[in-house]
Design a protein that fits this description.
Order of helices and strands: HHHH
Radius of gyration: 11 Å
Distance between the termini: 15 Å
Low-confidence stretches: none
Helix content: 55-70%
Number of helices: 4
Strand content: under 5%
Structural class: mainly alpha
Length: about 80
């Protein structure tokens, strides 16, 4: 996973979320069907796709999907 488009496809394919790149900046409460199980599944998928470990504490502090994407791809 290298691009935002890859991230959106991951969200659609792995989590069955109907999101687009425009939705990434919205708060989690505005993402249809989002719940804490999605967060755990997404963190696992991101670790698998990027080969990087994610801090669960940092993931819990993310305010949006965009925040999780930035956490996964790094600076």
């Amino acid at each position: 996973m290298k691009t935002v488009e890859d991230f959106v496809l991951l969200l659609q394919d792995e989590l069955a979320l109907s999101v687009t790149a425009e939705d990434l900046g919205r708060g989690f409460d505005a993402v249809e069907s989002w719940d804490s199980v999605h967060l755990l599944a997404l963190c696992t998928a991101l670790e698998r796709e990027t080969g990087r470990s994610l801090s669960l504490a940092d993931a819990l502090e993310a305010e949006s999907l965009e925040g999780l994407y930035r956490l996964a791809v790094g600076p």
